[in-house]
Write a structure and sequence with these properties.
The chain has 409 residues and is an alpha+beta fold. The protein is built from eleven helices and seven strands. Helix 4 runs antiparallel to helix 5.
Amino acid sequence: MRQSIKRIFTNLNIFMLTSLFIAILSTLLILEAGLSYEKISNLTNQKKEITSLTKLDKKNITFSKIEFNSKSRKLLSDIDLLKSDFSFSFVSKYFANEENEYMADLQNLKNLTTTFNNIANTYYIEDTTLEEEKLKSLQNARINLENFIDIMLIKNIFYDEKKYYIIRNILILNMLFLLLGTFWYRKKIQAIYSDIRFLYTIDKEQNKLSYQIFSEEADAIALRMRRKSVTLDNPEMLDPVTEIYNYKGLFSAYNNRKGNYEANHIAVAILEIDSFSKSNRAFAQETTQAMLKKTAFTISLHEQPTDIIARTDYNQFTVILSRTSKKQLFIDLDLIRQSIEEIRFHTQNKGTVNITISGGFMVKSSKVTLDEALKKAKEVLAHAISKGGNRISQTQDLIVFEDTNIPIA
């Protein structure tokens, strides 16, 4: 069953967006793993601060009071920091269901810290009344607070273990999704590329029976090309090398389609392969014919139903185009030139060879015969060749060129 290229690339687009989401999710999971270490560091530092608050020097009560106020406020801000950091713990919130329990623990920690701060605040004063009882209460508050922090640290170990398995499973699934998707779409794209290669092959008769077309679009193009070749079955009208119209077939096809050109603009163009002629046979005959076939095939890829393409000389092709505007006629012809310029042909003696063409382009009015249009197009072609080739010249270029060669009296 053939598959749709459009559907494949639509699904590929979804896959790439999903891959982007997975990359973002994986980054968030890695960041969340880092938050666990920050939480342990936060709680450990709180224990140190609490211990230091029970050992302030009462001999300099003013300085001790300032230090106590600073550290006691920091304890409460550290708890708020734990609460804000948890907002980024997506696994804990949405997969491990730890939010309610953790928030309750933070509230208990805050209550115990507030109690400890209040007791310490009554201890670090100049009045020494009941000092031993106050110190004992402070030590008990410290022990209760540190024990609760130890409980939170132990819980964090279990939280991290649960999160580890959840994150591990998510990352494994992500990796499998990306791995399978990459190989799946790599296979599809390679099959599409094989279809394109098949369509671009000049001698398809040798492999069209064995090759299985993968995509619906390539099958439709191949079918259209086969139908087209059936219509050109009169050998007298065909060029034997390229299997497109010859000079006689050009005139026959034009006469049959005259009625289709009334509503559109018509252009006649002669295209010549640069540095490639009977007098300059730089390649073997087999290579030369392959280059002619490839050039003809590339031109035919741009052909519309009302267009006519013919090989009318050794290295020349004549193209008759019909479009709704004169501007589009020239644009489409130059697209043909650009497509041929991209051809890389491999030869045994000269390695990789680039194929370029020059073109003579003219817009044909209804009053001008085809013979007259072809004669004018050849004159314009000579101008394009004189300017170095690999370009399309128009009739107005020829007028400017002639004006610049008028001798000064």
